[in-house]
Design goal:
This protein is α/β, with parallel strands linked by helices and about 300 residues long. It is built from 9 helices and 11 strands.
């Protein structure tokens, strides 16, 4: 059990690291890749040459005796929801960081981007159930609370079920939101709630991967435990056919997952524990920004 000073130190370190990214390369990108909910009326002003004729307010024009137009501004305030998988499989990491640790840092980066733009941020931690829900709010203290929960929350469940958090989100979030789902997506039969969520919200899937789950090293006879089910298997990793089949199954799961995202027109970006996430995430946002400009 870590002491309070140790916890605060870790949170502060994470805050400083992610804030540096936000204040440099990410400064304007977040704003440009997520659209507001619409246009709000701002004020009336006199008609100028070149203004759209359809923007003329004829009632005000009649009262003032000269043309007046309605001026609108984009409603920029957004609601950002972070859905983070805290199941047992997230504790796996064949490198320095576990999948959950990577998810935590990425979530912190997104949260600080949001508060920099005066947006609200909410959190759902899930396993095979909704473990924790924190409604969207603004402010640095709120974000620091979210970070603490993401890093140190102790879940009850062990398995991954994407149906329940997505269904829960669809019930508690009535207005359109930006939804980031950070998970290894090692779950079954979540297409329906994912589809509903993607229709209601701007959904971005962020699969968190580890190379140790994609390739099996040649280390002889080993005992392997499934962290979510607790089942233990004996595997002869020196057998080339076993290693090949292991890699094929992992690759097929990835292909099926990504095909589902494409079929439902869901933006996704895969991150790995053995790679620097920042260039990958930034490249994703740049591509998204370019695509939105063309629409």
């Amino acid at each position: 059990m870590q002491s309070v000073p140790e916890i605060l130190k870790k949170i502060r370190k994470l805050e400083l690291r992610t804030r540096r990214f936000v204040e440099t390369a990410f400064a304007g990108q977040y704003h440009s890749v997520f659209k507001g909910r619409g246009m709000n009326f701002d004020e009336f002003r006199q008609y100028d040459f070149g203004d759209e004729v359809r923007s003329i307010d004829w009632n005000v024009t009649a009262r003032m005796g000269e043309p007046y137009v309605r001026k609108y501004i984009e409603e920029r305030e957004l609601t950002v929801m972070l859905l983070i998988d805290v199941s047992e499989s997230g504790g796996y990491g064949s490198t320095n960081a576990s999948k959950r640790e990577l998810a935590a840092e990425v979530a912190c980066l997104l949260a600080f981007c949001a508060i920099r733009n005066n947006d609200k941020v909410g959190l759902i931690l899930f396993t095979d159930r909704v473990e924790l829900y924190i409604p969207p709010k603004k402010g640095r203290l709120h974000i620091l609370r979210l970070i603490r929960e993401i890093i140190y929350f102790e879940p009850v469940g062990k398995k991954t079920d994407l149906n329940k958090p997505l269904d829960f989100l669809n019930r508690v979030t009535a207005r359109r939101a930006i939804v980031f789902v950070l998970s290894d997506f090692q779950a079954q039969n979540y297409e329906r709630p994912l589809t509903i969520c993607s229709r209601r919200h701007d959904l971005i899937a962020i699969p968190i991967e580890d190379r140790g789950e994609q390739t099996l090293p040649n280390i002889g006879l080993v005992m392997v435990e499934d962290p979510e089910s607790g089942a233990i298997y004996e595997i002869d990793s020196s057998d080339g056919r076993v290693r090949s089949e292991f890699s094929k199954l992992a690759e097929q799961e990835r292909i099926d997952r990504d095909a589902l995202f494409r079929r439902k027109s869901i933006d996704s970006v895969s991150l790995r524990t053995d790679q620097d996430y920042f260039p990958v995430l930034r490249s994703f946002f740049m591509r998204r920004e370019t695509r939105l400009r063309r629409q």
